[in-house]
Amino acid sequence: MSVIQAVRGTKDILPDEILKWHKLEEIARKVSANYGYKELRTPIFEKTEVFTRGVGDGTDIVNKEMYSFLDRGGESITLRPEQTAAIVRAVIQNNLLKENSTTRLYYIGQYFRYERPQKGRLREFHQYGAECINSPYPESDAEVICLAVSLINKLGITDYKLRLNSLGNEISRANYRNVLINFLESNKEKLSEESKARLTTNPLRILDSKNPIDIEITTKAPNILDSLDNESIEHFDEVKKLLTASDINYEISPNLVRGLDYYSHTVFEFQSTYLGAQDAFGGGGRYNSLFKELGGKDTPAVGFAMGIERLLLILEQIEQQEMENLKDLIDVIIVPTSEKHLDTAMRVANIVRNKLELSCLVDVNRRSMKSQLREGNKWEVMWALIIGDDEAATDSVTVKYMMEKIEQSSIKIEDIVKQNW
Ligand code: AMP
């Protein structure tokens, strides 16, 4: 009988890997607690309506990516493709909102999207995220971004970019939608088929297109930041001010709109060059209309989600890079051709390490010259200093430049410190 494989785009997390997951989850929980966020766990599946109404009909997630099915009772059920809509459902249902107070929640769990699997893109993946609910003020936008940055810092990720944009309030966003549709209509023939279809369903999303022809057109599109009204500008300015006060660097990206329907005002995304094509490892924004959309009271909120697989990919790459750097740490290898010359080798190593302050290895396994040089290649050392009978007799070393084929030279030991290395 044939062996059954896991479903395409899903992965087992093996015992060898699980410690990394535990560690990351532990750090995420700790950072969340430091900001006063409490965990909320919702079921893995919801009524499909939570996402069609919450995430929005015009989005890729709802149109193409949901795992939806009729259960045996004939009800349409969906494996959650994201958490925010389900959190809002749970907050409304369980009365977690308090008047004049903020509800701060975080989550860790798995999510399901029928996407084409590739590096960093799975059909079952994991997210950590946080939501700050019931504040319309920019300080809550800044708070969730600070929380995300704290986690990134705690994980030791330094090489990343925070992209920031504002979609403005609902009026500004609607105005911009019209301006954008007008602009795109006049370029409609040149747009990709996918973007043509989005013109009516989700025109803002065209700004996010990765298609080169679309990009050529959208770089000339009207800037969303020019459509913001005063209230929206003030909100965005304040967010930027608070981020700067928190020592957080960001880049304004007017083309960043994010895929979902529910965002207004601030949107943001974290990008890493370690990830390749799927370079976003987290993102979020403000969603002031979602509560109403799901039948609740008008409640402003803001939040973000980070992909755990992508965070782990970045950490793996950093680790690899550190190993590479470690390798680079060795500049010189001292090569005694026999144990007779070990004392000279030690004397030379001492000069290299302490006077030149270069890193250096001396073989302690009495290996042949050839295998010592091979070891030097493994460490990618710059120079080998060879000590054989002739060298010992003249109190000198033979210098072999390991990076390129250059003729070897001889140098007196006392002159080693005078040479430019
Ligand atoms: P989104 O809800 O699409 O903004 O996703 C938030 C984060 O979840 C992204 O930045 C990714 O890190 C991660 N993510 C989204 N979709 C996937 C996927 N199919 N596979 C792995 N990670 C994903």
Q: Would you spell out the secondary-structure blueprint of this structure?
A:
Elements (H helix, E strand, L loop, with lengths): L14 H20 L3 E2 L5 E3 H7 L5 H6 L1 E4 L5 E4 L4 H10 L9 E10 L11 E10 L4 H17 L6 E6 L3 H16 L7 H9 L10 H7 L11 H16 L5 E2 L11 E8 L8 E7 L3 H4 L7 E7 H21 L3 E5 L5 H14 L4 E3 L6 H10 L4 E5 L1 H6 L1 E6 L7 E4 L9
Parallel strand pairs: 1-5, 7-8, 12-13, 12-14
Antiparallel strand pairs: 2-4, 3-4, 5-6, 6-11, 7-9, 9-10, 10-11, 14-15, 15-16
Helix pairs in contact: 1-5, 5-9
The site of adenosine monophosphate has 18 residues, from strand 6, strand 10, strand 11 and helix 11.
Strand order of the largest sheet: 1-5-6-11-10-9-7-8
> Count of DSSP E strands?
16
Oligomer: single chain
User: What is Rg?
Assistant: 29 Å
- Indicate the low-confidence ranges by residue numbers: none
CATH architecture of the largest domain: 2-Layer Sandwich
Count of discrete alpha- or pi-helical segments spanning 4 or more residues? 14
Give an overview of the whole structure.
The protein is of the alpha+beta class and 421 residues long. The protein contains 14 helices and 16 strands. The protein has three domains: 15-169 and 229-317, 2-Layer Sandwich (BirA Bifunctional Protein, domain 2); 171-224, no CATH class; 332-418, Anticodon-binding domain (Rossmann fold). It has helices at 15-34, 48-54, 60-65, 84-93, 138-154, 170-185, 193-201, 212-218, 230-245, 290-293, 308-328, 342-355, 369-378, 389-394; strands at residues 38-39, 45-47, 67-70, 76-79, 103-112, 124-133, 161-166, 251-252, 264-271, 280-286, 301-307, 332-336, 360-362, 383-387, 396-401, 409-412. Strand 3 (67-70) and strand 4 (76-79) form a beta hairpin. The longest helix is centred in the C-terminal third of the chain and has 21 residues, at 308-328. Residues 82, 113, 115, 120-122, 125, 127, 259, 280-283, 305-307, 309-310 line the site of adenosine monophosphate. Adenosine monophosphate binds at residues 82, 113, 115, 120-122, 125, 127, 259, 280-283, 305-307, 309-310.
